[in-house]
């Protein structure tokens, strides 16, 4: 017998359809419905609410073989699915994370195809693979942030069995796996949760209705989220989660959902005997996210740091539009790298208000923040999805890499960054509903037209070519300057492991010199100095020593080092006074 359960406090009657046969369910006082049915191990099933004959998928469905509007399927991993019993896990702090989108990482766009590229990542030297959302969403391809069945694995990628094979293969190669989890909103197609219970609140965020975290009956909704998060780490052996846009989680309770989730994750880590990490994507510049719980914080492992991205990108590229307006100078770059946040209780011209809070660099190590030169957001949310590699020289890309990988922060790369991929990463979707497809395309064009873009230049998210253009071109990896940049990334990542000074996590131990006019900056990390020339002309930098790594071989003299334009050099140095 198989027990079917569902939390559905809204309907007065619930039946479970198992392979086409309806069975009455019994309600308990807490709003849960239960029924025991004799059925196949892979039976298709769904729930019928009140007198509506529509069969709805299980909110906790493990598998949706026919899409998010159809019946769920019972699923359990094969007994011999896992071979990673010897995997002891690893902490993300100080490591290198590689963010990828399963559908565009390879030509086939599946978990199994991704396995074939894992040796490339091992050779590169990364420590973790971070998968953009793999939960079930409507359509065959998309970014994945419009998921509606959070417990199910997207079928086009290979479903739950394919995800197991990928994670198992990663662990066999010493790679940890992080999964991008979206708990702040639900997608526009296939969201049947409101018919079961009060999953949504009266509030809203930029992506739709907010999740009910603190209104009436919120306890079961919170449990739904926490159980889902733990399931990725327990049942799928993931080593942690990236939590999407946590600033959109509106929780007015005394114990915030994130604090509760962090405590539950730590308990699971102790039970499993391996580290588990939670990384927040946050727009708040609020150090409470990564402050330990015994000091009044939420106790998350780390958080994305967009200020570091903005400071590096604007200083190298010269872009200043939108939220880049307050960034661009070397002084801003130095301040951000030194203190973690640029906006720390200071005025943000983009927001027209004060923003952020200072990070206590004496007690919170830099490895609690992620530094990166590009992410799926920072590319895909541009009007035409153009990468920095489509706008900058290879030398400028190398300088950005040296600043991020040479910093005290935990580092993150976006797929293809390591060789300067020429493929864009555009916003794409495959909504089968004509009205939703049209609204998505028109909304995208209207959004960027307001910022001065020609609407005809904005790629149609629903055009299959938009998706296909965003796939990586792996033939570039060994080609000319692409190969040279790839080798530079490998060298920089290797230095993070072999040089103790680069493993020092404390921002207070790093000093920074720069010259705004000559466009050079030097990060001093113990006996190592990372000297970068952001300008196009050669400059003399007052630092000297033994050459460790470089983009262009510098001219090292007794009192200074001459760097070619758009280049960096790492020196084992005695600082010139």
From TrEMBL:
Keywords: Carbohydrate metabolism, Cytoplasm, Glycosidase, Hydrolase. It catalyses: hydrolysis of (1->4)-alpha-D-glucosidic linkage in 4-alpha-D-[(1->4)-alpha-D-glucanosyl]n trehalose to yield trehalose and (1->4)-alpha-D-glucan. Residues 76-444 form the Glycosyl hydrolase family 13 catalytic domain. GO terms for molecular function: 4-alpha-D-(1->4)-alpha-D-glucanotrehalose trehalohydrolase activity. Gene3D superfamilies: E-set domains of sugar-utilizing enzymes, Glycosidases, Immunoglobulins. Its EC number is 3.2.1.141. It is found in: Cytoplasm. It is an enzyme of class 3 (hydrolase). It comes from the Bacteria. It holds the Pfam family DUF3459. The keyword Cytoplasm applies. Pathway: Glycan biosynthesis; trehalose biosynthesis. Belongs to the glycosyl hydrolase 13 family. This is Malto-oligosyltrehalose trehalohydrolase. It comes from Mycolicibacterium nivoides.
């Amino acid at each position: 017998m198989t027990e079917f359960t569902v939390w559905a406090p809204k309907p007065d009657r619930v039946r479970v359809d198992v392979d086409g046969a309806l069975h009455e369910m019994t309600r308990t006082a807490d709003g849960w419905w239960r029924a025991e049915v004799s059925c196949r191990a892979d039976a298709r099933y769904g729930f019928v609410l009140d007198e509506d004959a529509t069969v709805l998928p299980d909110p906790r469905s493990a598998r949706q073989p026919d899409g998010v509007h159809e019946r769920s399927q019972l699923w359990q991993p094969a007994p011999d699915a896992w071979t990673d019993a010897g995997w002891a896990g690893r902490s993300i702090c100080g490591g290198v994370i590689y963010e990828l989108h399963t559908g565009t990482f390879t030509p086939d766009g599946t978990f199994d195809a991704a396995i074939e590229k894992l040796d490339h990542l091992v050779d590169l030297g990364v420590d973790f693979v971070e998968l953009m959302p793999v939960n079930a969403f409507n359509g065959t391809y998309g970014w994945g942030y419009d998921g509606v069945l959070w417990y199910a694995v997207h079928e086009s990628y290979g479903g739950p069995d394919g995800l197991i094979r990928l994670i198992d293969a990663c662990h066999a190669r010493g790679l940890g796996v992080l999964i991008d989890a979206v708990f702040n909103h639900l997608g526009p197609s296939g969201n049947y949760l409101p018919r079961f219970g009060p999953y949504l609140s009266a509030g809203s965020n930029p992506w739709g209705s907010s999740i009910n975290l603190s209104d009436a009956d919120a306890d079961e909704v919170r449990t739904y989220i926490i159980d889902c998060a733990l399931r990725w780490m327990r049942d799928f052996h993931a080593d942690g989660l990236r939590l999407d846009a946590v600033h959109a989680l509106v929780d007015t309770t005394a114990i915030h959902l994130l604090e509760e989730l962090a405590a539950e994750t730590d308990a699971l880590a102790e039970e499993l005997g391996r580290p588990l990490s939670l990384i927040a994507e946050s727009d708040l510049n609020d150090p409470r996210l990564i402050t330990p719980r015994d000091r009044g914080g939420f106790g998350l492992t780390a958080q994305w740091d967009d200020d570091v991205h903005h400071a590096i990108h604007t200083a190298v590229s010269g872009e200043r539009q939108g939220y880049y307006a307050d960034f661009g100078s070397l002084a801003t770059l130095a301040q951000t790298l030194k203190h973690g946040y640029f906006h720390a209780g200071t005025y943000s011209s983009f927001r027209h208000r004060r923003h952020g809070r200072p990070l206590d660099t004496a007690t919170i190590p830099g490895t609690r923040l992620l530094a990166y030169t590009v992410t799926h957001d920072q590319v895909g949310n541009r009007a035409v999805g153009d990468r920095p590699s489509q706008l900058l020289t290879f030398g400028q890309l190398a300088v950005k890499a040296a600043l991020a990988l040479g910093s005290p922060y935990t580092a993150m790369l976006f797929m293809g960054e390591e060789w300067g991929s020429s493929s864009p990463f555009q916003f794409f979707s495959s909504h089968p509903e004509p009205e939703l497809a049209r609204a998505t395309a028109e909304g995208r064009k209207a959004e960027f037209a307001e910022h001065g873009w020609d609407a005809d230049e904005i790629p149609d998210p629903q055009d299959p070519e938009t998706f296909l253009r965003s796939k990586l071109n792996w033939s570039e990896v060994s080609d000319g300057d692409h190969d040279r940049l790839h080798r530079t990334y490998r060298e920089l990542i290797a230095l993070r492991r072999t040089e103790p000074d680069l493993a020092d996590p404390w921002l207070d131990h790093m000093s920074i010199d720069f010259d705004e006019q000559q466009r050079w900056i030097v990060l001093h990390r113990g006996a190592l100095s990372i000297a970068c020339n952001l300008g196009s002309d050669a400059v003399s930098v007052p630092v000297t020593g033994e050459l460790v790594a470089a983009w262009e071989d510098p001219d090292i003299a007794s009192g200074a080092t001459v760097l070619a334009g758009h280049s960096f050099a790492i020196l084992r140095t005695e600082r010139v006074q």
